[in-house]
Amino acid sequence: MTKRKKIFLEEHEMPRQWYNIAADLPGTLNPPLGPDGNPIGPEMLAPVFPMNLIEQEVSSERWIDIPEKVLEMLAIWRPAPLVRAYALEEALGTPARIYYKNESVSPAGSHKPNTAVAQAYYNKEFGIKKLTTETGAGQWGSALSFACSLLGLECKVFMVRVSFDQKPFRKMMMEAWGGTCIPSPSDQTQAGRNVLAEFPDTPGSLGIAISEAIEAAVTDPTGETRYSLGSVLNHVMLHQTIIGLEAKKQLKKINEKLPDVIIGCAGGGSNFAGISFPFIQDKINGAEMEIIAVEPASCPTLTKAPFAYDHGDIAKMTPLLAMNSLGHGFIPPPIHAGGLRYHGMSPLVSHAVKEGLVTPQALHQLECYEAGVIFARSEGIIPAPETNHAIASVIREANKAKEEGKEKVILFNFSGHGLMDLVGYDKYFNGELKDHNLSPEDYEKFTAVLKNHPSPIL
Ligand SMILES: *Cc1c(COP(=O)(O)O)cnc(C)c1O
């Protein structure tokens, strides 16, 4: 056998530092702002996050050491294989060479444990006993429950109501790892009670669940609880860069050139940042690469929403972040890509788009499910509905390479498997799914709040 399907790294070849793109991005990064419109100091975040993570959040060091204990936990499933998608290439008849990082091999089934183990570690180091968080489709809640179980921390997860009802297996995973999972909005927080009083039948949203989780952390009288966020923030992007750093080493191992195209789906931006940021460093330094962030047309944060200052949650408990945002009160349409329905986007990813380093793309769900099925029937793994967005874009690029007769190298992030998301596939096969655009009326309604906020530097 001469074809090499999977490119592995030895455990000792795992990257020992994360890459911080804040050190290299061109343009001025807009700092988070407090309620008075002035940049916030680290102490204002201290009730919410431990100081060691706040230091990472604001760091401009290019390389940050990964602690030994975190490497040990990552080694449960890392280094993740880089896979050559020969069967997909053949199914498409493309001259492109397609590679993907298989992040579905983690215990929770996605890239999210990469930051979960790091965040749990830094909280534990800081003396914290319990973490609260929110989860949409349940991927993040299960990843954090897993990480907390490794370190003996308590974990409490507020899960968006509609997903809580649709995806009972995610809750069971959290419980298997010792976490607790309650539907949001709940009657356990003021933020939740306020929403329930006004909208008793609400399906919930990530914006609401974040408010509940932050409130539950900052109101714990022992002071030993902190909040943890699974995407969007700078330190989360940082922890995910291990994906792209490994991919670079793996491509080098087989003497493959730098990719021509790099693709990831983008909800809050973390798996996209993970695969792309280490390569964006090369792009900043002159390499030619197209880097595509794919989102659902029903939640078009990067392709339609403005770059503006906005809160990360409905109760405005977070500082104002400079990012692409559909407005913190955004209630997403119930499409199945649960992890891609957030109103905001990582400030670092938003900035990279603004600087022209990243091309955003919005796709409809039927094309994405179709792509996921092609992948499952060629490469074998059933992708998460979020991951299908990346695969649909890969298929477009592979077909373009075929038309142009070009031997392109395409790298994408296989962010997770879809074994807990089969209800979405079932609906797709039964013809129950429709394409959905955010209506101009809803767009106006939800983005109106942004007009009251300060303007970021463009
Ligand atoms: C959560 C999730 C996403 C979206 O979140 P990002 O922070 O944008 O990566 C994508 N894919 C999978 C499998 C997820 O679980």
Key terms:
Rossmann fold, globular, 39% helix, binds pyridoxal-5'-phosphate, 458 residues, 18 helices
CATH class of the largest domain: Alpha Beta
Low-confidence stretches: none
User: What's the number of structural domains?
Assistant: 2
Assigned CATH architecture of the largest domain: 3-Layer(aba) Sandwich
Assign an overall shape. Answer: globular
What is the C-alpha radius of gyration, as a whole number of Å? 20 Å
Terminal residue distance? 53 Å
On the 0 to 100 scale, the average pLDDT is 96
Bound molecules: pyridoxal-5'-phosphate
> What topology, given as strand order, has the largest sheet?
1-4-5-15-10-11-14
- Figure out the total of helices: 18
* The CATH topology of the largest domain: Rossmann fold
Number of strands: 15
Instruction: Classify the secondary structure makeup into a structural class.
Output: alpha/beta
What fraction strand? 15-25%
For the sheet with most strands, the description reads: 7 strands, mixed
Percent of residues in helices comes to: 25-40%
Brief summary:
With 458 residues, this protein is of the alpha/beta class. The protein is built from 18 helices and 15 strands. Helix 6 links the parallel strand 6 and strand 7.
How would you describe the overall organization of this protein?
Helix 15 packs across helix 16. Strand 10, helix 13 and strand 11 form a beta-alpha-beta unit. The chain is globular. The protein folds into 2 domains: 276 residues, Rossmann fold, CATH 3.40.50; 117 residues, Rossmann fold, CATH 3.40.50. It is 39% helix and 15% strand. The mean pLDDT is 96. The N and C termini lie far apart (53 Å). The chain has 458 residues and is of the alpha/beta class. The strands form 4 sheets. It has a 7-stranded mixed beta sheet with strand order 1-4-5-15-10-11-14, with helices on both faces. A 4-stranded parallel beta sheet has the order 8-7-6-9, with helices on both faces. A two-stranded antiparallel sheet has the order 2-3. The longest helix is centred in the C-terminal third of the chain and has 20 residues. The structure holds pyridoxal-5'-phosphate. The site of pyridoxal-5'-phosphate has 19 residues, from helix 13 and helix 16.
